[in-house]
Design a protein that fits this description.
CATH superfamily of the largest domain: Mog1/PsbP, alpha/beta/alpha sandwich
CATH architecture of the largest domain: 3-Layer(aba) Sandwich
CATH topology of the largest domain: Protein Transport Mog1p, Chain A
Radius of gyration: 18 Å
Strand order of the largest sheet: 1-2-3-9-8-5-4
Mean pLDDT: 78
Low-confidence stretches: 39-52
């Protein structure tokens, strides 16, 4: 018997849904608007501290609220940008560094769409990967839903007065009509665990489907 547990989000049964996916344990959906509101409040303000604490509380019930609040700071600016882009889903991942000191590792997972001109799906995926000129890792994927590509990049954005190294692993998955790309992105400051996050996104991409995998309710069209 499998011990895997899946929680189905209500959006998966929306009539106009056109992508389905699954994430492993440790990921919690987060409204992008909440992150954006936190960023808009001046640093150090009481309201900002309260918002971060409330958001952190929704991500854990193990007494790690303060630690997660601190870890959220480097990614909230990114989430602020995503709130106004074509991102349709955002989740925050919290995992223990079992191979290190046992500290908590934070990641941000998003899915978005990018319109593009028609091309064979394999060409679309390769073209998207080739456009990432600063990539440290590029590979092609053959997923159950079709061809895709995976790219890893490292950046050093400013976080306050300092620079914070950021790892981003991106999977480009062409839609069946070959006119848009589903973009899966996994971002983390835990760059020393790049292999693990690359494997995590690769496996998550394998669960993407553009055909409803859920049994239809009685009477559903």
């Amino acid at each position: 018997m499998s011990s895997d547990t899946f929680v189905i989000d209500p959006s998966a049964r929306m009539p106009d849904a056109d992508i389905w996916f699954a994430l492993p344990a440790g990921f919690m959906p987060v409204p992008l608007s909440d992150f954006a509101e936190v960023e808009e409040v001046p640093a150090g303000a009481a309201h900002q501290e309260h918002s971060l604490e409330a958001l952190a509380t929704t991500l854990t019930d193990s007494g790690n609220t303060q630690q997660i609040s601190e870890l959220l700071a480097p990614v909230r600016r990114l989430a602020h940008v995503l709130a106004y882009s074509c991102v349709i889903h955002c989740s925050v991942g919290t995992h223990r560094d079992d191979e290190g000191d046992g500290s908590l590792l934070l990641s941000l997972f998003t899915i978005g769409w990018q319109e593009t001109s028609w091309a064979p799906r394999g060409v679309m995926a390769a073209r998207a990967a080739a456009a990432m000129t600063d990539a440290s890792h590029v590979e092609t994927l053959e997923l159950p839903c079709g061809p895709a590509s995976l790219v890893e990049i490292r950046t050093s954005p400013h976080v306050g007065d300092a620079r914070q190294e950021l790892l981003q692993v991106v999977a480009y998955v062409p839609f069946p009509d070959a006119r848009k790309l589903a973009i899966l992105t996994l971002s983390t400051t835990a760059v020393h665990r790049a292999d693990h996050y690359r494997n995590l996104l690769r496996e998550s991409a394998r669960l993407v489907t553009f055909e409803n995998p859920l049994p239809m309710d009685h009477g559903e069209a």
